[in-house]
Amino acid sequence: MEEEKKPEELVPEPVADEHEDEFLDDRREVLEAEEAERRQAEEAAAQQQAEAEAQKPAEDGQIDGIDMHLPAEEAPATPDQQPASEPVGEYEDPRFQTIEDARIGWQKKYKVWSIGKIGISVLAFGLIIAGWLVPKNIWPDNANLSLGISIGVAVFAIALIIVYSFFQKKTGKKMVEDYFNAYYGAVNSYAFQGLQISEIQGDVNCKVAREEFAEMGVYPGLAQIGSRENITFAYEGMDVALADLAAQKDDGKGLRTIFVGKFLRTHNTLEVDENGIVIYFKGGSRALPPEGVKGRNVIENNKRYVIYGASANKGALTPAVRALLKEIRTDDLLVDVCITIKSGKTYWALGYEDTLMVLPSDKRFDPRYIIRYKDQIQQILNLALAMNE
Q: Which of 166, 191, 216 represents a domain boundary (last residue)?
């Protein structure tokens, strides 16, 4: 009887192959290449994730663990929590009446042109119908003549609408400009009252260059800006520029608003390093903290504001400047403030609510927001002046 073989004896002995070493070498190279590709893919994914994290808005109002909003007990009410607007009586300042008169005048002219557009459209439609029916009944046996007249009348009617629309658009633009210039002229006159302001230049058509707003260095991924009323003036000899501005970034899912408010630029005599100083005054839930402060060195952090920059720059914030910093308050109108200080120039992003930034159209002008803006802009200008001594 044949002796039963053990399991290990059933395994055939390896047969030497002269091509085995060559095969293993080739396979090793393939594996090493695949491993290198895997590492590169992981590094690329990690980099993309890091960039995505940098582009994301602050979660839960925090950046680098710092709460970018005011404490709950000091946070201003959101617009839907505010009491309804009270009826506005007689204006206490004639400049407010100037704004209301300009608004009413613009609305009246706009309505006239809108009614005219409806009338012209109805007339054109009637001409087209008549141009088809009348020739057809007068010359029933001459189809070509009827068709020719119908086409001619239709072309005339369409041209009438086009011409009217052209003049409506041209006149409408002029009406809006006149209203805006009257509004900003009255607002600036009121807001700057009592200040030594001179050499005011610019109007509603003057714009801010995208590159100038990007100089703040705290709004990464800036895609586009919109601006108006970019004026320049001198305040006690200090060069100043001021504009209404809104900025957006592309976060991959579409455009997202990152700032709306007043963009101020002032001269200073401070000496700081190339990265400068950034001061952010915290606001409520409507605030838009600048995402570009992420990763910056924190000099100071308190419940009202955060200061970023190199420790060596702290000396630039003189006692006079610090005293005025403590007076700045955000609220339900001035939602937040971001200041970028560079040697020779200071950039101010004053975030404001729509109650100030959107001009009144169909509702009566409410001056309460302008009255509050006056106190705030004068406070900011005095702080800027302290940086220019």
A: 191
Q: Alpha-carbon distance 23 to 31, whole Å?
A: 12
352 and 210 housed in the same domain: yes
Question: Range with the lowest mean pLDDT among 42-51, 269-278, 308-317?
Answer: 42-51
Asked if residues 190 and 370 have their Cβ atoms less than 8 Å apart, the reply is yes
Write down the pTM of the prediction: 0.74
| Domain contains 155 | yes
| Other beta carbons within 10 Å of 149 | 18
236: left (phi over 0), alpha (psi -120 to 50) or beta: left
- DSSP per residue over 310-343, as a string? -GGGGGGS-HHHHHHHTT----SSEEEEEEEEET
Q: What is the pLDDT of residues 118-170, one digit of tens each?
A: 887 777 777 777 766 777 677 776 666 666 777 777 777 788 788 878 877 88
What is d(CA 251, CA 239) in angstroms, rounded to the nearest whole number?
A: 35
One domain, residues 346 and 363: yes
Task: List C-alpha distances in Å: 169 to 157, 158, 204, 354.
Answer: 18, 16, 18, 26
Q: What is the pLDDT of residues 165-221, one digit of tens each?
A: 887 788 778 888 999 999 999 999 999 999 999 999 999 999 999 999 999 999 999
Are 68 and 287 contacting, i.e. CB atoms less than 8 angstroms apart? Answer: yes
Compute the radius of gyration of the chain from its Cα atoms.
Answer: 34
By the 8 A CB rule, do 321 and 384 touch?
A: no
Helix, coil or strand: residue 206: coil
What is the distance between the alpha carbons of residues 320 and 329, in angstroms, rounded to a whole number? 17
Residues 355 and 210 in one domain: yes
Residue 277 is inside which H or E element, if any? Answer: strand 277-281
- Residue 207 domain boundaries: 198-386
Q: Can you read off the two tokens belonging to residue 24?
A: 């293993």
Same domain, 307 and 382: yes
